Amino acid sequence: MSRVLIVDDDVAFRLSTAELLRLDGHEVTTACDAVEAGEALDAQEFDLLLLDLRMPGTDGLGLIEVLRRRGERAPILMISGFGTIDSAVDALQLGADDFLTKPVEPDVLSRRVSELLERRPLPDRAAEGGPGGIVGETPAMAKVFEAIRQVAPTETTVLVFGETGTGKELVAHAVHDLSCRSRGPFVPVNCAALAEGVLESELFGHVRGAFTGAIREKPGLFAAADEGTVFLDEVGDMSLRLQQRLLRVLQEREVTPMGGVQARPVNVRVIAATHRDLPAEVEAGRFRDDLYYRLNVFPVRLPPLRERRADVPLLIEAALSRLRERSTTEVPLSVAPMALRLLQEHNWPGNVRELFSVVERAAIRVEGSRIEVQHLPRELRGHDPETEGGPAAGKGTRYRAGPDSADERAAIQAALEESNGVRARAAELLGMSRTTLWRKMREYGLPLA
Fold it and tell me: How far apart are CA 344 and CA 293, in angstroms?
């Protein structure tokens, strides 16, 4: 049961709204002004705050500022009367998450309350995570966790498939940590980051005089990982000649250093990873089929972030927790529901790595305790020439207004229909800010509730 606080000086609205939300299954507390609201908030925590804009004493705008300064994390739904839309937009900029205009249809109010409660900040569960501290609760990640637990106790070679930034090394580390080799070394090697000759020397070692500058013998990383695990990241970028050498290691469990003739036995487990489509690479002749079969004994597919959007809130909390651990300055406690919506709707071509980067950048911009929409990069929130000095139609804008107001009104209606009424998404499609969208909706007489 969710706890909702209604703050409104209109007795009839306060009581009728409280009854409506109680019928929806919520626990409701009411207050007539900011003073009573403060007393209620001191007494217990709430999952949602419903505030009137115009009240005697401290009004809704002033109350929002007070609440956000004291670190209140609950979503705020602002209620305003006709003629106060501009002030309601100001409320959104101060930290409110949504607003409705009076009179409010009961079904509209119920739906908005449910939407905001679904997007309220989650408790800190990120620390629990899966194997190796990997964060995720979606069915796609549950399959990954099960695969890790199944293969870890064995000596089987593992091949991790996944786009760049999905966390392939975390999976490899988790397999190592849960294996009988966990006391041995875990040696990661990025096969795409080194030139062929350097990679060969790093992996297999070399004898003295093997090449110019080889003044002493070097054992190589396979030898250094003895009794442990070698993680070959981006193995699909390895040259065909080195693929042949790697195949021998997997088949014979021995390594011949560069310039040497004597093979040396090695006891290592190999975990490989790639963002490439290896069957297609085999078909194109860029990857050896025999090596592919040796590596692909136990495949693990790591889903991209766009296929597990429900994990975004947990990943955000994990990112903020890591920032708190290493930061000497204040780090935001939460993300506003509207900002969270935009973060979940983004496709994340850079996956978890990109998400963590965006959260860190937003956290630096925040002065209060919560990340708001304005703290996010422009490509996530759309942009507006009045606020950011750019053209109204961004690079990804899908709807472009024509030369007259009728065309612009039609474009706004089309964007709202495609986004199912989600105004943040509609603003992104139109290439304008939410503030401009609200103003134009009012100007053209489009429904604001």
Answer: 37
User: So what CATH class is 309-443?
Assistant: mainly alpha
What six digits make up the tokens of 172?
């490899």
**CA atoms of 67 and 366, how far apart (whole Å):** 16
Question: Was domain 3-118 assigned CATH 1.10.3720.10?
Answer: no
> Are 427 and 416 within 8 A, CB to CB?
no
Residues 6+ apart with CB under 8 A from 139: none
Which residue would you say has higher pLDDT here, 238 or 399?
Answer: 238
Domain ranges of the chain: 3-118, 139-305, 309-443
Q: How many residues does the chain have?
A: 449
Strands, sheet with 186-190, edge to edge from the N-terminal-most edge strand: 186-190, 229-233, 269-274, 158-161, 298-301
How far is Cα 212 from Cα 312, in angstroms, rounded to an integer? Answer: 50
H or E segment to which residue 50 belongs? strand 48-52
Top CATH class, 139-305: alpha beta
Distance of alpha carbon 266 from alpha carbon 258, whole angstroms: 16
**Which tens digits make up the pLDDT trace of 133-188?**
899 989 999 999 999 999 999 999 999 999 999 999 999 999 999 999 999 999 99
Are domains 139-305 and 309-443 of this chain identical in fold?
Answer: no
